[in-house]
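User: Here's a structure from my thesis project, written as structure tokens. My advisor, Dr. K., wants to see whether a designed sequence matches the one we expressed. Can you design one independently, without my sequence as a hint?
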């Protein structure tokens, strides 16, 4: 069972869990492009994060406030030692929509229905088409650490029900 399929199922049942897992997976998928990029992901009603990647490594940071990429760049967010790079664009969506995109669905329907919005450089946002896999091996290779509670809470969505039919388990 693919991680992307599990994310789609989790997004339908527990949007907050799916949002946190997608945010954990995005740095690995972004690092796989090999490009230097920084962008924000806003999940409506859940939160906002900055994903930054360069030289095959990536990081994620939780952000506060509804600032778009233009406001962040104007404030000089990229200046100073240890500062986060300025966002080049912002993706505004819900966890279910992003999970479907990660699973290979095209963005057109989501854009037309306004479930997916891009603010900032649309040209740079095209890098989203090149994202690599978001599987555990890619996450480890990119240096991404996933919170143990996410792994535990995702387990029911990662295990195909056919594998355990007729069995009962207790954790």
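Assistant: Designed independently from the structure alone:
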């Amino acid at each position: 069972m693919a991680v992307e399929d599990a994310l789609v199922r989790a997004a339908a049942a527990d949007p907050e869990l799916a949002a946190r897992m997608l945010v954990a997976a995005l740095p690995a998928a972004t690092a796989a492009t090999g490009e230097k990029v920084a962008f924000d992901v806003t999940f409506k009603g859940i939160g906002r994060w900055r994903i930054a990647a360069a030289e095959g490594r990536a990081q994620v940071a939780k952000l506060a406030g509804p600032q778009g990429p233009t406001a962040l760049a104007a404030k000089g967010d990229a200046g100073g030692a240890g500062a986060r790079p300025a966002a080049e664009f912002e993706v505004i969506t819900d966890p279910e929509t992003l999970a479907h995109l990660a699973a290979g669905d095209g963005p057109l329907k989501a854009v037309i229905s306004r479930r997916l919005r891009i603010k900032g450089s649309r040209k740079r946002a095209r890098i989203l088409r090149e994202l690599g896999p978001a599987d555990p091996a890619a996450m480890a290779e990119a240096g991404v650490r996933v919170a143990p509670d996410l792994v535990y809470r995702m387990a029911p969505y990662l295990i195909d029900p056919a594998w355990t039919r007729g069995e009962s388990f207790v954790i």
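When you compare it with your expressed construct, this may help: The longest strand covers residues 47-54.
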